[in-house]
Amino acid sequence: MIQKYIIAGALLCATVSIKAQEVVLKGKELFGNLEARHIGPALMSGRIIDLANHPTNSRILYAGAAGGGVWKSTDGGATFAPIFDEHAQSIGAITVDPNDPDNTIWVGTGEIWTRNSVSVGDGLYVTKDGGANWKKVGFDKSERISSITINPSNSNEIYVGVLGALWGDSEERGIYKTTDGGKNWEKILYIDQTTGAGDLVMDPQNPDVLYASMWEFRRTAWGFNSGGPNSALYKTTDGGKTWNKIHNGFPEGNLGRIAVAVAPSDPKIVYAVVESKKDKGLYKSEDYGKSWKLLNGDFGLVVRPFYFSRIVVDPKNPDILVKGGLNGSISRDGGKTFKNLGAMHSDIHDIIFDINNSDRMYVGTDGGVYRSWDGGATLDMVDNLPLSQFYHISVDNEEPYNVYGGLQDNGSWYGPSSSPGGIEARDWTRVGVGDGFRVLRHPTKQIIYSEMQGAQNLWRYDIAKNQTKNVKPLKVKGKADLRFNWNAPIAISEHQPDRLYIGSQFLHVSEDQGDNWKIISPDLTTNDPAKQDKESGGISKDKSGAETHTTIFTIAESPLDEKTIWVGTDDGNVQITTDGGKNWTNVVENVPNLPKNTWVYHIEASVHNEGTAYAVFDGHNNNDMNPYVYKTTDYGQSWKSLVTDDIIGFARNIQEDYENEDILYLGTEFGLFITIDGGKNWSRFTNNMPATAVHFIDLQKKTNDLVLGTHGRGVIIIDDISPLRQINQATLNKDVHFFDTKPYVVTEEGGFGGGSTELQFVGANPSSSAQIIYYLKKRHTFGKMTLSIEDMAGNEIVSLTPGKSKGINIVDWNFRTKGPKVAAGKTLTFGGFTAPRAPAGSYKAVLSKGKNRYETTIEIKNDPNSIVTESERAQQQKIAKALFDDMEELAYLVYRIDEIIKTAEELKKNDPKAEKITSAVVSKLNDLKKTLVVTTGDNYVNEAEPELREKLSELYAEVANQFETPSAGQLENKAILEAQLDKALVTFKTIQEKEVDKLEKYLAKNEKPAVTYKDKAAFLK
Amino acid sequence: MNTLKTLIVALVLAIIAPANAQDVDEILTNYFENTGGIEKWKNLEGVKMVGVMKMQGMEIPFEQVMLKDGKQATKIDLQGQKMTWSAYDGETSWTRNQMTMEPEKNDSEANQNMKNLAKEWPSPFLNYKDKGFTVELVGKETVDGTEAFKIKVVKDPVVKDGQEIPNISHYYFDTENFVPIVIEEEVQDGPMKGQTVKMIVSDYQEVDGLYFPFSQSNQFQSMEFKEFVLNPEIEESLFVFPEGK
């Protein structure tokens, strides 16, 4: 009995201890130094919301992006670097504290040009050290902050204009004021839950005078409303205690968005651009806003107020003003007349003037930042802002694979995941215009499908022939007009390469690459007429088609069964057919705890089981910012939520791992989240990964690269995530665990890149090296740790710098062994830096940590595309080795010469009697040395004529670097140089036997230390 | 080759015994108390460091000397040529030209910055108040998979292209061992201007009662140290610009 208890007790202990040992690693503890790389592109850049100057240093500028964070330039706008990557990347306003401009910068998040695809912000931030560290100040629910205004003589007095929620009611909007530098805030102007602060400006001469434009606005998934009785322009003259409407001269009736600006050089002049049904346009006041006069209603001033309500006055001249717009407009006569700014990307959101020279201007557009040196006539784009806003991406199966995708207002593109010298602007090819969305590569042919806004075009682009055909499906007799989402879904079958799907409210299928279409479903949406508003916009009509609703948004054909097709709609239906479209079932009712009509953003049909799928719902355009992620294993009959508190931001996309069902990758408004346990725990991936919105994720099947289409930071790739598949409790409990890796290929590629200027963004390439990937249970900090590559016999080939991080470590080995010991000369011989490649085969990676030694085997193999035969390769290795040995033979010879000369010269100095003997040695040896290495000149145009070392190292480097068998010319040269080397060795021997021998005898006779030098093995060590 | 010019070894001090650090001064006080004592660090006159630098597939043996008064010199061995690559004698800093391999004086701004650098030795945290540096505990963060105290140090501004710019570094002290494991610095010029470079610091070992990190690496290069010699005897001529050569 007692024994039983003991056993039971032991069992209990065992269970407890096993449970206690379960290791759950999150974030950086798990990912270690697994890092993302950014490939841009930056050639079309992305939407800029706000620009800001430093008030006294014209070299410093800030740019706030719609989805790419805050960027700082310290060289007058030549280049920018990101300074806000850890926080919400959607920016509304940037303000530099005029009293502490080097250090204190305020950032209000949440873009304020409220198009349908806007991201959201999460509050107000401040840095006190020029952007190195940021602190959140509050306004968590503000969603969008339009303005931050600071008293120029008191940094504690700050006003913040909150535009607030776009998609629903919110009380966190209006004008706020702090008088203690941001600790406490008072709401000093609030209208109602629908009306926010569009603009807030301070009189530069009187900080108690402020102008605030309040804007009534609302967006739904199917419409937009700008304006109403609450939109108005207010003024305070007592620091915000009282506010009065200042509409004397403004149009009657409901107003919309109002832009306002005070002339910095003459603050009685105030400009306002008013959205109104009647008499809209630019109003000017010359009496501090008491009265207004309509000056101009040009298209450039009144177009799309929700997108372009920004007016800026020259800091020195009250008559020069610039207005954001489709092209941007500039007036030089106080607003009476305007002309367009010079040619640049359309959609101008903000303009700033240089603080010293108004001819220098900076412009923020839908396509990045532009700079002008001639008052806005000529514009030059900043080329290093990779802010591209992808709606969707996909990859192909080429080597290297390409990434395809469509961008907000910047067309559709594809570019390589790797390119010689890095991924440059010129590597990208355009495959669509307008707003680009889904771009897919035909699985077997040189064909790309590319869809443009609302399926206005569905191009089938033949890459080889450079031909394009629009293959979009048209209305069918007896059926309703087609409704396509702005971001209409297309999908290619995994089973029939020529099959293409597109969704309107119906699912269309083509079996011939889009030439002919068939509708295979009824209307799969709710077809709710209330959500089919065709007169969107409010006061200013805004009919772009972007608000078309009750449409299909996602299509997923099961990779396991072509008859099983999932369809998700923007109005919340999850439809499934298991018979190729004959019968459809809406299974959304089975999804627990999901608000009705929540947008189905993505369905992923599993590769693991036919009945398994994942669905991601996005409720943000119903003002619901929660993530909704579900899994079904029974064709949608039941669903399980995979959401935990770890996930930040509403979710848009999920990608399952092709091999490990427990690994999922989730894209949300604030970044990438990964689970390795089927959704029980999620980790945010932050290694070189900004908190940008991830709109689409793809997993490249050959490379296991996770490819992210972000809406603000371009394409971001995490190379080879396969180590994540090998993580389990056993792995996590080991001190050191080497991950299995596939054989690494020594790619036989040459080619040149580097066509970019210094100011252009160049995307990072993946590693082309072998990688040693291991997990460390604990970060290595104390004592020695080394990592070396050994051949299978245990000889060290090369030593590497190990990663010490807790979690996953990745160490590159470029397949090179140690370089030769090189003969010392006056200058360097660059060939001498070449290390031979290790031949294909197995190698040991040996990690030493204190007394412990851990090892694994890695495999390297020759390029399967190589045209070099095995015997040719063997010959190359043999000759390279021989030349390597020649290099070292020469190095040893020169070393001995130098050592003997040193001894002789020493003796010469101290013993004049030995003059004759020492001079003979020095002179003979120097004569020999001059033929072996250069002893004069420099590394550039004063280079000496090459001697044996230079010729030998050049030939050695050439042969060691090439893959082909050495040419007859190379062999002939080798023979010539080796003959020279042999001759030199003979000469040396002769000198040794004669002059050096005399020296040695003299030394011995006089009881002086003999000539000594290391033996060859010691020298080469 | 360019990075040879910026061959800088940051001396980082180590802490052995953990403590319950509440604020930055407590962390730093413990840090000095536990590393052989603050007096020992204050009395340190200089260090000679011998090691190998790995960059772009090359292994370059080097020897670097840093003295309390700011003098420093870096000797390297390139293809058998042993030379002083760069040095500073307290007044003049110089570096060898990569083409001629001859010494050339650094520009006046680099020289000024080098002068300021002397204050940071052997640690910017040693008597940081007297130096006029400010130090701040930013918070806890995970770096290298490990929880760390993030400490910001603002040093004398550096002069670049005619302007003074702030000089901020972040040191991450492992919360378990109280040892800096990562140092972040902003790149001040070149194509990576404005970006942060992260130096990984590890392999701490004891040398005559003080602890030194025997491995320091960033994305461009790594330095593996073989030896630290404390208070070395050094010929003054090592640091002096070789006139007429």
TrEMBL record, chain A:
Keywords: Receptor, Repeat. InterPro entries: Sialidase_sf, Sortilin_N, WD40/YVTN_repeat-like_dom_sf, Xyloglucanase_GH74. Residues 530-544 have a biased composition (Basic and acidic residues). Pfam families: Sortilin-Vps10. This is Sortilin (Neurotensin receptor 3). Residues 124-249 form the Sortilin N-terminal domain. GO terms for biological process: xyloglucan metabolic process. CDD domains: Sialidase_non-viral. Residues 521-544 are annotated as: Disordered.
Automatic annotation (TrEMBL), chain B:
Residues 1-21 form the signal peptide. Keywords: Signal. It comes from the Bacteria. This is Outer membrane lipoprotein-sorting protein. It comes from Aquimarina brevivitae. The lineage of its organism: Bacteria, Pseudomonadati, Bacteroidota, Flavobacteriia, Flavobacteriales.
